[in-house]
Amino acid sequence: MNVLIVHAHPEPQSFTSALRDLAVETLQGQGHQVQVSDLYAMNWNPVASAADFSGRANPDYLVYALEQREGVKGGNIAADIQAELDKLLWADLLILNFPLYWFSVPAMLKGWIDRVLVSGVCYGGKRFYDQGGLAGKKALVTLTLGGREHMFGEGAIHGPLEDMLRPLLRGTLAYVGLEVLPPFVGWHVPYISNEARQDFLRDYQARLENLEQDAPLQFPRLDQFDERLYPLAR
C-alpha cells in the first residue's frame, strides 16, 4: 500500500510521536510506501482563507468550497494545499495521528482537514459516504488522551468515545468516501508507566501488522436513500 501519516503533535519526543515512528517502521518493514506530513514540523498553516487562491472565480465574495473546486481545476490553489492533496490521492491508507484536544482534534489537524479535503475532488453534490471522492481508500485514526478507559462508554462520565469522534469518523472521513477502520487509542498516556507505554506500542504494532483483518465501521450508503435522501422503506 501507499500510506500517508498525518501527524499533529508539537513535541517530537512525545508518545504520539513514538506511535508515528513505530507506524513508519512497521509499515515500511511490510513493504509499504510511507509518507509523513508532520504538521508542526512543517509549520503548516491551518487557516482556510482567501489567501489559499492565486485567482478567484468570484473576487467579490468568498465561498471557500466553490473556490476550492475552481482553484484545483484552474491551478490557482495554494502550493501547500496541492502538495498535501497529491499525497492524499497517492495514498491507499490515511493515518491521522494526534492527541485528543477538548474532545476533538488539534487545531493544526483541523486546519489540514479544512484546507486539504478539497471540494470537487474529495466530495461534492451527492459524492459523499460510499460515493465520496476518496472511495476505495482506508483511514485509521490513532489517538492518545489523558483519560482512563473506564471514563468512556455508555454510562461513563465522558460518554462513549465514539460520540466524541463522530465529527471526525463519520462527518469527515466516511463522508469523503474513506473506509474507516476502528480507532487505535492510547489511554491515560501522560500518567502511565514506561512499561504500560511499551504495551501500547506492542499492541499498535500488532494492529498495524494485521490491518487487513480489521472490519471497517459501518456508515450510510446512498443506495439506502431515495433521490431526495429520504430513507428507503426497509
Question: What features would you highlight for this structure?
Answer:
6-stranded parallel sheet, 6 helices, 33% helix, globular, alpha/beta, 234 residues
Summarize the structure.
The protein has 234 residues and is an alpha/beta fold.
| Global geometry | globular
The whole-number mean of residue pLDDT values reads 96
Q: Specify the biggest β-sheet.
A: 6 strands, parallel
> Which value, in Å, is the CA radius of gyration?
19 Å
The DSSP helix count reads 6
Low-confidence stretches: none
Q: Distance N terminus to C terminus?
A: 37 Å
**Strand pairing plus helix content: what structural class?**
alpha/beta
Determine the fraction of residues in helical runs and give it as a percent range: 25-40%
Q: How large is the share of residues in beta strands?
A: 5-15%
Elements, N to C (H/E): EHEHHEHEHEEH
Q: Care to count the β-strands?
A: 6
Structural description of this entry:
The protein has 234 residues and is an alpha/beta fold. It has 6 helices and 6 strands. Strands 1, 2, 3, 4, 5 and 6 form a 6-stranded parallel beta sheet that branches. Helix 1 packs parallel to helix 6. The model has no long low-confidence stretch (mean pLDDT 96).
